[in-house]
Design goal:
This protein is mostly helical. About 60% of the residues lie in helices and about 0% in strands. It is elongated, with a radius of gyration of 24 Å.
């Protein structure tokens, strides 16, 4: 990458910074898609592996694989950030995924207690 013009280096830097910022701090997608996130994660792993082999073989295009790997991993994190469909706490009154009722938990635990007997 040392032989590239400064404008291309700056554009690559901006691309990576924008990708990382959007993945971490940008608005999340409407719905979380773990399948797509895993696919992008696997793609980034393949790109990183290819970049390592290209660097070991002293190929000049290894930097391109590294940058593509960073962008693919950013896409994986972005797709993993969204809300789960149906995760609205107000849509099901019988939904027990809310905060734990510790008093109810302690009462249930006391019901299961037995006196200890020596073995």
């Amino acid at each position: 990458m040392s032989g590239l013009p400064l404008a291309i280096k700056a554009a690559v830097t901006v691309l990576m910074v924008v990708s990382i910022w959007r993945a971490l701090y940008g608005p999340p997608p409407d719905q979380r898609d773990v399948t797509i996130a895993r696919l992008w994660g696997a793609t980034s792993a393949v790109l990183y592996a290819g970049a390592i082999f290209a660097l070991a073989d002293e190929r000049s295009g290894a930097w391109l694989l590294l940058i593509a790997g960073v962008v693919a991993l950013c896409l994986a994190f972005w797709h993993a950030r969204g809300d789960d469909p149906g995760d609205d706490p107000g849509d099901d009154p019988g939904d027990d995924t809310g905060p734990l009722d510790w008093d109810r938990f302690d009462r249930a635990r006391r019901e299961w207690e037995r006196p200890r007997v020596p073995a």
